[in-house]
Design goal:
The radius of gyration is 20 Å and the shape is globular. The chain is 34% helix and 17% strand. The chain has a domain at 2-168 and 198-226 and 273-290: Rossmann fold. By secondary structure, it is an alpha/beta fold.
C-alpha cells in the first residue's frame, strides 16, 4: 500500500480530496488534524493532534514511509518547518502544499502566470484578519522549497483561484443561493468590469491525486484556475439558469455597497484572472466548466437543505 499523510483533511477541499482518494485502489490514508470534525470514514486513519505539537506528532505518527504529504492547512512558514522537523530523514517522497493565487502582486499583465511577481509584504489594506494571509502563504512556499532541498525530497505547490463547491464553509456561492431561495434582491456593482476565475473543489481534488508520485510535477508550482471568465452579472445569470428561479437584481455604486456593507464575496473593482493552463498541459487535465460545476454545487446545496 502507498501511504499518504494528509495534514488537515476534515473540511472543504481536504475532505473532498480524502473522499476521492478512498475510491482509488492501493492507498493507505492517514489524516492529522485537531479532531474537531472527525470523518469516521472507512479506510482512513485519523490522528488527533495539533500539527505544531512536535512531541505529540512524534508519539502518534506511525513509523512509515510516506509516498506523499498533502498539506491543506499550513498558513505560515513555521507550520511547514515544524512538521518536517518531526519526520525522519528520507521518510517522505513528495510534499504537496496547497497554497493560493493570492500570493501574487497586483498586476496589469493578465492572466497571472506562475512566474508573475509575488507579494513582498503583508497587505494591511485587507484588514487585521487577512493582512498577513497571502504573504505568509508565499513565505510558506519558500520554506517548503528550502526544507525539501535539504531533505532531497521534491515538492509540488498548487495555487487554487477562488474555490467553490461541496462543503464550502465560506459564504460565497451559498450566500447567493440563500438570497435566491429567500426571494431577496441581489445588489450588484454598477461597474461590470471586474472579472474572476474559479476552480471547483472536485477539480482541485482530482489534480492533487494526479500529482501523487508524478515526476512531471516535482519541484514545480501550478495555478489551478478554470478558463471561464466570470463577472458578477454572469455569475447571477448562471445561478438563474441552474436554479430555474426568478432573480431580482439591483445595481448600486461601489461606494454605496461599501457603505451599506453588502457582503458581496468577490472584489468589486479588481480582476482576478489567472492562467491555469500549465497544469492542464502537464497532466492532460480538463477543468469542469463553471456552469456545470455550479450546477453540481447547487444540487449539493439542495440536498443539505440550503447549507453547502
Amino acid at each position: 500500500m502507498k501511504n499518504i499523510l494528509v495534514i488537515g483533511g476534515s473540511y472543504f477541499v481536504g475532505r473532498v480530496f480524502v473522499e476521492e482518494l478512498v475510491k482509488e485502489a492501493g492507498y493507505s490514508i492517514y489524516i492529522v488534524n485537531r479532531g474537531n470534525a472527525p470523518l469516521n470514514m472507512e479506510g482512513v486513519h485519523e490522528i488527533a493532534c495539533d500539527r505544531n505539537d512536535g512531541d505529540g506528532l512524534r508519539h502518534k505518527l506511525p513509523s512509515l514511509d510516506w509516498l506523499a504529504i498533502v498539506d491543506f492547512c499550513a498558513y505560515e512558514p513555521r507550520d511547514i518547518k515544524n512538521l518536517i522537523s518531526v519526520l525522519p530523514e528520507g521518510s517522505f517522497k513528495q510534499y504537496i502544499y496547497i497554497s493560493t493565487t493570492s500570493i501574487y502582486k497586483d498586476t496589469l499583465q493578465l492572466p497571472v502566470m506562475e512566474d508573475s511577481p509575488k507579494l513582498t509584504g503583508p497587505q494591511p489594506e485587507l484588514g487585521p484578519q487577512m493582512a498577513d494571509y497571502a504573504f505568509n502563504k508565499w513565505l510558506g512556499e519558500l520554506e517548503l522549497m528550502k526544507q525539501c532541498r535539504q531533505r532531497k525530497s521534491p515538492y509540488t505547490c498548487l495555487r487554487p483561484a477562488i474555490i467553490y463547491g461541496k462543503y464550502n464553509y465560506a459564504p460565497r456561492e451559498s450566500w447567493f443561493f440563500d438570497m435566491i431561495h429567500q426571494d431577496k434582491t441581489i445588489v450588484l456593482p454598477d461597474n461590470e468590469l471586474a472579472l474572476f476565475q474559479f476552480v471547483s473543489v472536485w477539480d482541485v481534488a482530482k489534480i492533487i491525486i494526479a500529482c501523487l508520485d508524478n515526476e512531471k510535477v516535482f519541484d514545480k508550482a501550478f495555478n489551478l484556475s478554470a478558463e471561464d471568465l466570470v463577472s458578477y452579472r454572469r455569475f447571477v445569470e448562471v445561478l438563474k439558469e441552474i436554479t430555474g428561479k426568478r432573480v431580482s437584481i439591483r445595481t448600486e455604486s461601489i461606494e454605496t455597497i461599501d457603505q451599506q456593507r453588502i457582503p458581496l464575496p468577490f472584489p468589486l473593482d479588481k480582476h482576478l484572472i489567472y492562467s491555469g493552463a500549465l497544469i492542464q498541459q502537464v497532466l492532460g487535465f480538463q477543468y469542469i466548466p463553471f456552469k456545470e460545476g455550479m450546477r453540481q454545487t447547487y444540487e449539493y446545496y439542495k440536498e443539505q437543505g440550503g447549507q453547502t
